[in-house]
Amino acid sequence: MRIAFDAMGGDFAPEAMVDGTLRAAREWPDTQFVLLGVEDEVKPHLAGELPTNVQLMAVTQHIETDEEPVKAIRRKKDSSIVRGCRMVKEGEADVFISAGNTGALMAAGLLVTGRLPGIERPALAPIFPTLTQKGMLVLDVGANPEARPEHLEQYALMGSLYAEAVLGFERPRVGLLNIGAEGGKGTTFTKEVYQRISALPLNFIGNVEARNVLNGDCDVLVCDGFSGNILLKNTEGVAKAIFDRLKKEFTRNAITKLAAAILKPGLKRFATEMDYKEHGGAPLLGLQGPVVKAHGSSDARAVFNAVRQARLYVEQQVITRISDELNRLEGDEHR
């Protein structure tokens, strides 16, 4: 297997990207890693001689987080994001991972790697932590803010297949994000989506309210990119606010510090369970080749976990399974 990695993307690039890749290279010596980066910026973080399964491939450009996506990928054809997506398209890499500009990665995925036949809009699908400790796949969280009902129908299909193949869920429970649990709740849009997903050969459990998301009521949560991105950012913000407040309260005086010392092991376990770094990256489902978006704030540990998830994505042939299922459903419709 050959994994291409964007060494220039992310808040802590290139150091965290390099460290995470080197750690992954030691863990999986049978995998080849290609670091795509501006040589003068990456080399100072390569301590000594590279492992035999790691290669630095120099690029001359880097897409910044604030650049307009489509313009950036058209102007910067030798950027790490464009080169990585092209490597997947041309079979030079089995998967590409980037923690860089999400919009640019999405645009490059569409325009360079290309969509799967039968998929109109790819979806960004991260794993949300849940209180059940199993996690939950949520799609879409921002790749396609203005979705149509048929797009969410495709998200449900792709998400179910990915959750089964990569996350290990048996007959994944698929839910639809809505303002009420009853089947008749929601807008005209969500009602049509409900009917469409109900007709698919999936384990569809119906609507799921946002307040129940972290309870793990479903294994795959389907929503449009606008709502999904709000859910993602709000969840991250609430989690940070809670941990910041707990830290303040536990350092208020000697008594609270003593309480903190007693509770510390349990709090650390809970913090780990709710940490996005433990859940790897978010695949862009619906592309012709595997492309994975790592969190922008990824450290070396998050990079390592993104590699672990990307390996499963490739090994389980998720894209082939999605394509086969789409063809099967299309054949059923024509009978």
Automatic annotation (TrEMBL):
<dbReference type="GO" id="GO:0005737">
    <property type="term" value="C:cytoplasm"/>
</dbReference>
<comment type="similarity">
    <text>Belongs to the PlsX family.</text>
</comment>
<dbReference type="InterPro" id="IPR012281">
    <property type="entry name" value="Phospholipid_synth_PlsX-like"/>
</dbReference>
<comment type="subunit">
    <text>Homodimer. Probably interacts with PlsY.</text>
</comment>
<keyword id="KW-0594">Phospholipid biosynthesis</keyword>
<keyword id="KW-0963">Cytoplasm</keyword>
<dbReference type="GO" id="GO:0008654">
    <property type="term" value="P:phospholipid biosynthetic process"/>
</dbReference>
<keyword id="KW-1208">Phospholipid metabolism</keyword>
<keyword id="KW-0808">Transferase</keyword>
<dbReference type="Pfam" id="PF02504">
    <property type="entry name" value="FA_synthesis"/>
</dbReference>
<keyword id="KW-0444">Lipid biosynthesis</keyword>
<protein>
    <recommendedName>
        <fullName>Phosphate acyltransferase</fullName>
        <ecNumber>2.3.1.274</ecNumber>
    </recommendedName>
</protein>
<keyword id="KW-0443">Lipid metabolism</keyword>
<dbReference type="InterPro" id="IPR003664">
    <property type="entry name" value="FA_synthesis"/>
</dbReference>
<comment type="pathway">
    <text>Lipid metabolism; phospholipid metabolism.</text>
</comment>
<comment type="function">
    <text>Catalyzes the reversible formation of acyl-phosphate (acyl-PO(4)) from acyl-[acyl-carrier-protein] (acyl-ACP). This enzyme utilizes acyl-ACP as fatty acyl donor, but not acyl-CoA.</text>
</comment>
<dbReference type="GO" id="GO:0043811">
    <property type="term" value="F:phosphate:acyl-[acyl carrier protein] acyltransferase activity"/>
</dbReference>
<keyword id="KW-0012">Acyltransferase</keyword>
<dbReference type="GO" id="GO:0006633">
    <property type="term" value="P:fatty acid biosynthetic process"/>
</dbReference>
